[in-house]
Amino acid sequence: MPEAVTARRYVARVLCLACTAPTPDRLCSRCARELRSPPDTLLPSGQLVIGAYTHEGAARLLVHALKYRGLSVAAEGFAAELAIRVPVSTTALVPVPRALSRSIRYGIDPAAVLARAVSRKTGITVIHALGAPLWWRSHAGASRPKRLRIRFRQRLAVPRGAALVDDVVTTGTTAAAAADALGGLPALVLAATVASKIRSGESPSGGRVTGAPASGTNDRTDPRVPPPNGVFDAPGDGS
Ligand SMILES: [Zn+2]
After folding, report:
1. C-alpha 52 – ligand 1 centre gap (Å)
2. Angle subtended at Cα 208 by Cα 202 and Cα 210, rounded to the nearest 5 degrees
3. Directed axis angle between helix 57-68 and helix 75-85, to 10°?
4. 157 CA to centre of ligand 1 in angstroms
5. Ligand 1 mean position to 179 CA, how many Å?
6. CATH code for the domain defined by 35-211
7. Residue 37: helix, strand or coil by DSSP?
8. Pick the residue with more confidence: 207 or 106?
9. How many CA atoms lie within 13 A of 54 on its CB side?
């Protein structure tokens, strides 16, 4: 086993996955107290987003640990929450793939890791139905008209009732592009974290649903935003 992998696993056992404070648990008590459940969110595309946590504080640090430190164990907490909340009618989990260049750079495809973790807890099949472009520019800071559509490609068919799985959802741009590539399916998105800057919207089911951010930053957390305690990898150009 490569030395770096062994070291990462050791660190993940003795330090808080979010803030890196020493703790025997995955999260220290302070970070655990910071986690908040987001309301279900209706995106402009009509897709419903169910998130494990609101994208702030410890949850933001935790998703960074998954995406930029390659700590796949960080997906377990998100998956436990999503396993409780995923509708029983869900037929398959379709991870939204990371740009190939970033998967290579960071050594992990976070949505795929998250989908597998949810699958282990629910028994729902994972279908790697989407292919990702080699690279796309981060949407961070771009105004809505300037955001470029990500061109995913369909590799496999997906059944009705499938759910997309992604790490972070803030505007829904990525989820909409993924659904387009699958011919308009699926209508449900499971996300590790969901942005907190949301505006009120209408719920198709009458439930507690809010709209997408009015001026969100990026569906994918921007590593250029420095973490509060400087524990993460060097800045990158996208997700
Ligand atoms: Zn902590």
Report:
1. 17
2. 50
3. 120
4. 40
5. 35
6. 3.40.50
7. coil
8. 106
9. 14
The rounded Å distance from CA 75 to ligand 1 centre is 15
What is the distance between the alpha carbons of residues 187 and 218, in angstroms, rounded to a whole number? 20
Instruction: Note the pLDDT of residue 134.
Output: 74
How much distance in Å is there from the Cα of 32 to the middle of ligand 1? 7
Ligand 1 centre distance from Cα of residue 19 (Å): 4
Alpha-carbon distance of 104 to 107, in angstroms, equals: 5
* Ligand 1 mean position, distance from CA 17 (Å): 7
d(CA 73, CA 65): 9
Task: In whole angstroms, give the CA distance from residue 25 to residue 129.
Answer: 35
Over the stretch 202-232, which tens digit does the pLDDT of each residue have?
333 333 444 544 333 344 444 433 333 333 3
